[in-house]
Specification:
alpha+beta, Methyltransferase, Cobalt-precorrin-4 Transmethylase, Domain 2, Heat Shock Protein 90, 3 domains, six-stranded mixed beta sheet, four-stranded mixed beta sheet
Amino acid sequence: MNGPLARDEFAELLASGEDSFCEFKDARLSNSDLAKELCAFSNAAGGRVLIGVDDEGGLHDAADWGEERVMNVARTAIDPAIVATYQRLHWNEQATIAIVGVETGFEKPYAVRSGEGRRYYMRVGSTSREPSREELIRLTQASGAVASDLRPVLGASAGDLVPELVAERFAGRRTLDFAALGAKERRRVLVDAEILHPDTEGPTIAGLLCFGRAPQERLPYATLSCVAYSGTEPGRELADRAEVGGRVDEQIRGGLEFIARNLRAASTVRGGERVEAARPSTESLRELIANAVCHRHYGIAGPIQVRVFTDRIEVTNPGAPPNGVTPQAMRVGVSIWRNQFLVQHLTSLGFVDAVGRGIVLLFEEAARLGLPEPSITVVETWTTIELGLEG
């Protein structure tokens, strides 16, 4: 939709007037006015803003609207940032028009930054207006915000996947001989399997994290940032540090290895004998890391944080629990999958059981071993689970 306009195409837009995909704006509009229109189009089916065109179709010079100004609005005034197209059309000696286009967004709902808050807009016919509560909920659902792992990875292609791993995904299927398919048929199967995105035909976030050659080349934030301290509080001197990347199964193994080498075996002397203190099991620690990898929000550009202290382990996830799930609900086994593909993939590999029992088991084991009760804390867009190491 948003390729360069030829002069006759521009003239046709002028004659047709504003609609669901086209907005006229006088050259005197403000940055916030442009942000509102771009936000509305991104929350809908995309469209163009013709800067230098008044409501009656009259043309004026938009020389003040250069590409840098437009891109700055797209990057800084809209949350999340969008990628806009820019075209400068010299119509006559008196009028140079700036044509700004956006496609429908994959990160809905988009909002305009307004002071410390956010204001949402959507395109309805030829106007941009704020959505109702129900419309905002539908925007969120339509974006795949619950399934953040099915969003496309911008700039990635099918060549970023490991063919052997992808083939294993379909091994043993009696009704599908993946190895015998031609390139076109394979691509269709991978789109149907949600490994490739239907719009970009490049990997989804889940496809790249499960089958990618080097996922962090495209998703540098999809890692575990691990730090170990020699005491009970953060300090300047670190006992150990590691950035763990790779595919999701490699991240879980790497996170477990980091905790294992920094989990000091505490002990006490009773009756002249040294007694080793209870420690969370490998299964609990694996659940702790796997839960983070499965349920983090991949639309938030930040790593999972793993911090090991002498008295506790903290794992902090980007993203609050989906659909209003509370820490209290998590304790009793309520589980809503934000990333269904990842959950199913890691279930097939034996890392999670996918029945909502993982968090419950952490509490049950702590009670059985006499360890402090685990805590779950949600602060804005972060979720932290803490396991105590000392009874």
